[in-house]
Amino acid sequence: FLTFIFSSFPEYAEFLHCKSKKFTDFDEVRQEIEAETDRVTGTNKGISPVPINLRVYSPHVLNLTLIDLPGITKVPVGDQPQDIEYQIKDMILQFISRESSLILAVTPANMDLANSDALKMAKEVDPQGLRTIGVITKLDLMDEGTDARDVLENKLLPLRRGYIGVVNRSQKDIDGKKDIRAALAAERKFFLSHPAYRHMADRMGTPHLQKVLNQQLTNHIRETLPSLRSKLQSQLLSLEKEVEQYKNFRPDDPTRKTKALLQMVQQFGVDFEKRIEGSGDQVDTLELSGGARINRIFHERFPFELVKV
């Protein structure tokens, strides 16, 4: 879980597993994420459903909570179990199935969109596309002469909330510690200079994705809040009713024993009646029992025995 909080104070970050420490050097934050991952999963590409909670306080970010889920692995490597694909899918479904969450379906531009696992899983839990936003990455790595214009214009596989293209830092940029501001400037330049994307450059890029996420999340919360409130109120009423029963509870009260005995006798009567009627939860389907057996005895066996006498 990664939570961004807008703040007027200097930038710093906090981890839930070491809450007393404030990180001001974000290289240390990266190192701590790697160290905690190794502590939880081992050093040989193991996985774990236990989240690493990181909260970032900064005047340069919007209020958002992001859950970074693992990509779907088809073939196990290292210490990963043989059913790694199903374990990761179950883990992802736990989060994206919640009606209160927005789904960011991330797909590389150099991959066929129809084969996107992210879009496929998003469609399973959100068939109407009410809470799915498509994100297309690696636009700068597409084959020469090709582009993702039809996808970004929402023509190829339309999504209700559309697609947003982003250009992230390459591994070389990350290793060379390329500044985020420089990376954002390079991304902006890419969209403005590309003939297929320049007409929609204002609707592309990481800053626009942040704004859209913040706006969509605000709208989504506004829409889901009434149903959430009514659900909580009904749960509260149910709990209050249950509490009322135990408000004057005295375990040493002798009348409780009488009441308990009466309840047991009444329950026995109800169970007995159900068995006679054949409507209980333990009905034998192989031979007659209860009322059916009594009926047979009186209508078949009893007249026969009378005739014999």
TrEMBL record:
One of its GO terms (cellular component) is microtubule. SMART domains: DYNc. CDD domains: DLP_1. One of its GO terms (molecular function) is GTP binding. The keyword Nucleotide-binding applies. One of its GO terms (biological process) is synaptic vesicle budding from presynaptic endocytic zone membrane. InterPro entries: Dynamin, Dynamin_GTPase, Dynamin_N, Dynamin_stalk, G_DYNAMIN_dom, P-loop_NTPase. Its EC number is 3.6.5.5. It is an enzyme of class 3 (hydrolase). Pfam families: Dynamin_M (PF01031), Dynamin_N (PF00350). Keywords: Endocytosis, GTP-binding, Hydrolase, Microtubule, Motor protein, Nucleotide-binding. The keyword Transport does not apply. Residues 1-226 form the Dynamin-type G domain. Transmembrane segments: none annotated. It comes from the Eukaryota. This is dynamin GTPase. The gene is Dnm2_1.
